[in-house]
Automatic annotation (TrEMBL):
Superkingdom of origin organism: Bacteria
Pfam families in UniProt: RraB (PF06877)
InterPro entries the record matches: RraB-like_sf, RraB_dom
Residue ranges of every copy of the Regulator of ribonuclease activity B domain listed in the record: 26-108
UniProt organism field: Orlajensenia leifsoniae
Protein name stated in the entry: Ribonuclease E inhibitor RraB
Length: 131
């Protein structure tokens, strides 16, 4: 990979850290799986379709939209969004996008809050208080 690719990847990781920090503030359970969408644009439809073929082999569902001068791709897969997972999926997607002359535009996903039980379920007999 080129120095330019490394610079763009480092820049994306900085954006990811900010997004992950904001998700924590919102109460996101970063370890829970959710659909993560990745966006990229390509100079030609052929480039976009080649990227789609590679990403589909990595278990992404992909769609493209083309106009006369724009070829945009969205790739979706179930992933967690903690920092380690984000670095892994960003590296995977950007490598494919870069290999096909594309520009990676980042990722997005819904905030998923932690599940909390409505009632306390005792873990041991000592926690049971009979009245």
């Amino acid at each position: 990979m080129t120095d330019e690719y490394t610079r763009r990847l480092a820049s994306q990781f900085a954006v990811d850290r900010t997004q992950i920090d904001n998700r924590r503030i919102l109460g996101d359970d970063l370890s829970r799986l959710r659909e993560v969408e990745h966006f990229a644009s390509f100079p030609t439809d052929a480039d976009a379709q080649a990227a789609v073929a590679e990403l589909e082999r990595l278990s992404f569902r992909c769609s493209t939209m083309s106009t006369n001068s724009s070829h945009v791709m969205c790739a979706v897969r179930l992933d967690a969004v903690d920092e380690e997972s984000a670095r892994y999926f960003v590296r995977a997607v950007t490598a494919v996008v870069d290999a096909h002359s594309g520009d990676y535009d980042g990722w997005g996903a819904p905030v998923v809050t932690a599940r909390r039980p409505l009632v306390h379920i005792p873990d041991s007999p000592e926690e049971i208080h009979w009245s």
